[in-house]
Amino acid sequence: MDVDSLYQEIILDHYRNPRGVGLLPEPHGESHQVNPTCGDEVTVTVTADADGLLHVGYEGQGCSISQASASVMSELVEGRPIAEIHRVEAAFLDLMRSKGSGTPDEEVLQDAVAFAGVSKYPARIKCALLPWMALRDAEVKAGIPVEGGSYE
Amino acid sequence: MTSLDPQRIKKDFPLLERTVRDGQPLVYLDSAATSQKPRAVLDAERSFYETSNAAAHRGAHQLAEEATEAYEGARARVAGFVGARANEVVFTKNATEGLNLAAYAFSNASALARHGREVDPRFALRPGDSIVVTEMEHHANLVPWQEVAAKTGATLRWIGLTDDGRLDLGDLGSVIDSSTRVVSIVHQSNILGTITPVRQVMDAAHAVGAIGVVDACQSIPHMPVSMADLGADLVAWSGHKMLGPTGIGMLWGREDVLATMPPFLTGGSMIEMVYLDHSTYAPPPQRFEAGVPMVAQAVGLGAAVEYLDDLGMDAVAAHEHELTGYALARLQEIDGVTVIGPRTNVERGSAISFTVEGIHPHDVGQILDSRGIAVRVGHHCAWPTCRRYGVPATTRISTYIYNDHGDIDAAVAGIRAAQKYFGVA
Fold this sequence. Notes:
Chain A is an alpha+beta fold. Chain A has helices spanning 9-16, 64-77, 82-96, 106-109, 122-141; strands at residues 29-35, 40-48, 53-61, 80-81.
């Protein structure tokens, strides 16, 4: 079976050369998430500045999917208005729930469209969602209003 | 002793004929998680439902009699398989439930003693007492004891590990001491493959008057094991790892230990007399089997034991030992592969965990899966053991009677393919 749909070149590139690694000093919110079945871990820190822009930092260890997802996420959300970030979060969640049949919005998701193939592998969806769960939870902890709160 | 013929054995397992991931033959290397089932087991379970299905130990009709006979016949068969008497074998849902049954005996007796009830003092724990496990336990033989410690005020201790995956018995005398009331250890590690010197540890437990418990999930399916040789008081294992159905496990207990052990699950079947304000309980093993039991699963398990008996457990162990030696050698030929656990084929079973430098186990497993090879990845429900060896997770291959050199060769080729795919070789 061809695993190239899962391991897109963009994913492998982010895995080998992760962007934006490092936690923020004195963040407004921080969340550590683990995938208890395989031991993937990611910590996400967030701080909202006076202009309503979100800054994000992360650290993690785990498989290519979880770590590349954290790298792609940090690039996608760093320094953007919170409302925009929530649209990206919602689009990524929809993509992961699409079972491979979704048509991702490239304008919103950018590099994250590479994760479309992951949605066909039930065991790996949780890997891809792990940093996004941490982001959402860190936002909640920072007191940022998030529709629906932390998601499971 | 005749040697096993995996090619012939494979034909007895319908599932092993199927293909996976776009028509590729299945290479099943995950028997430490669960074994596949021979046709004889499936037929036995189906035949029970088609001819004798009824609730065992209830009713006065012919079917109830046949169901009871089938259930108790399976118990006798399983008991004989491990050199035990039938009344010493308790059927449980799985091994985890068996270990919880043992652990709850301690927390229940401790709670009863605090309220002035008469209990066997061997089970009543207090602050100052200690519980001993090892650093290579499956979570099923660790978390229940953490709970007992929290409920009774006893202290949890553990026997550490050496760098080559063995129990570090150097300080056994200070870990197991006069405060120790229960020692619960694994016979064969599900993650490292290590076979532990279980007799030595059980003897140390008995020397200080402690109860000895053994998790034998990974040993009993793979080698001849006799309860007398283990020297334990309680031994838990599962049916589904030894060709049997899911939903049935065993807890063997020495007669005098089961005799005074308080029950875990209570309700129907396990009672002697019931009044509105109190009850008395049936003798073992019924005291520990509340509710309508898993009769069909017991029948299936009985057929699994018969299948293994026909092969001969000496032959099973010899086959696996040879295969393990081959797998250890082939895996360690690969640059970047590090075996986590004993690297030599001495006192070890067929579960082999390893890391591949530069590739996360989850990704190794994915590439193997894409080639039709089923392995386990992750922490194998032994997270503290992973931490001890500084790895977040491992890839594990584990073999059984239906595996051969070709299966190992397929895994080795798959690992090399993963290295190529991820650009690390």
